[in-house]
Design goal:
Length: 516
């Protein structure tokens, strides 16, 4: 059984998730573990329900001298999660009874029921977990250092309610709550002092960041050949559309946390996340939810269709109208909505699956998306792990039909996708869950000179000479495009380059800041 949680509420005072994370949980050593699931603040006017909460957490709980963290291998991921939930008293149907609820919180310390996470597990599922769901070919390897699945139970955590401006602290005992509150107060004092220093004209000490140019793991010729092969599968009737992605990498002396903060400034997103782990750092500014489960109500929210924001309100409206009226974009979007409806229908009550938002425009700082929302009621004999199995991975990053597209992706992409296009989020002990899709994501790990990252030697030497005192890291990213019957291979290649440069804009901004 999970140990009880002690709770305390404090005024949030307009702090962001990043600010609270920095104060309470940001690690001082590379091997430490900490997590931030962040929604933007101020909360966007459109769809504020997506950005009401942020969650941040520190190191794993220790039970009988054993850290409560796990990295199950492929083939054991879902059995492990089912066993974990059942061993913690959550029953076969993935929700807790009234007696177990009382066990989790002392009588004098209980959070409001509307909070999304009141204890449980944080973690990720890499894209390659799909091999545990479907019978897929094994043709490629994953060269990255991150485990395919990682879950842990935090020893303490914080929930930011941006709407009510309340900060909820949770810890395993009251002394843990006191420690969290002291850290918050100490950080507030440091911030106030720093503000005064900046007013006096002191910019403070800054490290130097020297990103290299990105190097793609696929040549233009090979990528265009793959696009043409996808088009042949479409013409043969195998598939309607496939998402073909491209891996890139670069070297940098920036830390993952610095990159994440810059990414969030460029493109604040409701399903953003930062993970500090022993294997490296994960920085994601994802706008897309894979699946949500609250009180047995399941939701998935596919994104398909994007335009840049307009320079003026009139131009913005014109671009939105162009997206909504584009016959091709609408057709592809509806196809993916049908795919997600079918996925939910596999585990939801008959007749309960509905599309409650269709072809909605969702605006962010730099782009707007075409979004739909599909809901259903989870069947009584189904668990939340069944729900994940039914919806994972998201259809928007595979194509349609999903299984055949995954077979083609394995054939044509040079390496396994690793964490890219997988999901991360939480499993709450009450039976709820929320998982994003890991798009607009970068992975970072220390450069290992002994491994000699292919193609990076020249770039590392030229880019790091001015900052040899800083540790060198390798950053990986992955960008994809939906390939359809009339896709132009050369155009898809250059569109992929453009998407990669947009992700690496964070590195460039960090570098430019140092030159000011």
């Amino acid at each position: 059984m999970t140990k009880a949680w002690y709770w305390r509420s404090l005024p949030l005072e307009k702090r962001t998730g990043s600010e609270v994370f920095t104060a309470l949980f940001r690690p001082t050593t590379a091997s430490a573990i900490a997590t931030l699931l962040e929604s933007p603040y101020p909360t966007p006017i459109e769809h504020p329900q997506l950005s009401r909460y942020s969650i941040c957490a520190g190191t794993p709980r220790i039970v009988d001298d054993v850290p409560q963290m796990w990295t199950p291998e492929l083939g054991q991921v879902f059995p492990f999660l089912e066993e974990l939930l059942q061993s913690q008293g959550h029953g076969e149907k993935g929700h807790s009874d009234a007696a177990s609820v009382c066990d989790k919180f002392p009588a004098s310390s209980s959070p409001p029921p509307h909070l999304p996470f009141t204890g449980g597990w944080l973690g990720w599922l890499g894209y390659d977990v799909a091999w545990e769901i479907e019978r897929l070919p094994h043709e490629k390897i994953d060269p990255l250092p991150f485990p395919i699945a990682f879950w842990y139970e935090p020893d303490s955590f914080a929930i930011l309610d941006h709407a009510q401006q309340i900060l909820w602290l949770a810890a395993s005992d009251t002394s843990g709550l006191d420690e969290l509150q002291e850290k918050l107060e100490k950080r507030q004092g440091i911030e106030e002092r720093d503000k005064g220093t900046r007013r006096q004209g002191d910019k403070g000490n800054r490290a130097e960041f020297s990103p290299s140019s990105p190097i793609f793991l696929t040549s233009q010729t090979d990528y265009e050949t793959a696009v043409n092969q996808v088009k042949k599968y479409i013409q043969a009737g195998d598939i309607f559309q496939a998402n073909l992605s491209l891996r890139f990498q670069a070297s940098t002396t920036a830390s993952g946390w610095e990159i994440y903060q810059t990414l969030q400034k460029i493109n604040p997103s409701p399903f953003a996340s930062y993970w500090q782990t022993p294997w490296g750092e994960v920085m994601s500014c994802s706008p897309e939810r894979l699946v949500l489960l609250q009180n047995r109500q399941a939701e998935t929210r596919p994104i398909a269709g994007t335009r840049s924001r307009g320079a003026t309100p009139k131009q913005d409206m014109q671009l939105a109208q162009d997206l909504l009226s584009n016959t091709k974009e609408r057709a592809e979007h509806i196809m993916l909505v049908d795919l997600e409806r079918n996925d939910l229908g596999r585990v939801c009550e008959w007749g309960s699956v509905v599309v409650d938002e269709l072809l909605t425009i969702e605006r962010y700082s730099h782009v707007m998306h075409l979004v739909s929302n599909i809901k259903g009621t989870l069947e009584g004999d189904r668990t939340r792990i069944d729900l994940i199995r039914a919806t994972f991975p998201g259809g928007t990053i595979t194509g349609c039909p999903k299984v055949r597209c995954m077979e083609i992706i394995e054939e044509l992409e040079p390496v396994r996708r690793s964490l890219f296009y997988g999901s991360c989020g939480y499993l709450d002990w009450r039976g709820n869950l929320d998982l994003n899709i890991l798009i607009r994501t970068l992975l970072l790990a220390p450069a290992n000179e002994d491994e000699g990252h292919e193609g990076l030697g020249r770039e590392i030497t030229s880019s790091s000479s001015s900052s040899s005192h800083s540790p060198l890291n390798i950053v990986w990213g992955q960008v994809g495009a939906g390939i359809v019957a009339d896709s132009d291979p050369e155009r898809e290649w250059y569109e992929s380059l453009h998407k990669a440069q947009a992700q690496l804009a964070a590195l460039k901004m960090l570098n430019n800041q140092q030159g000011n």
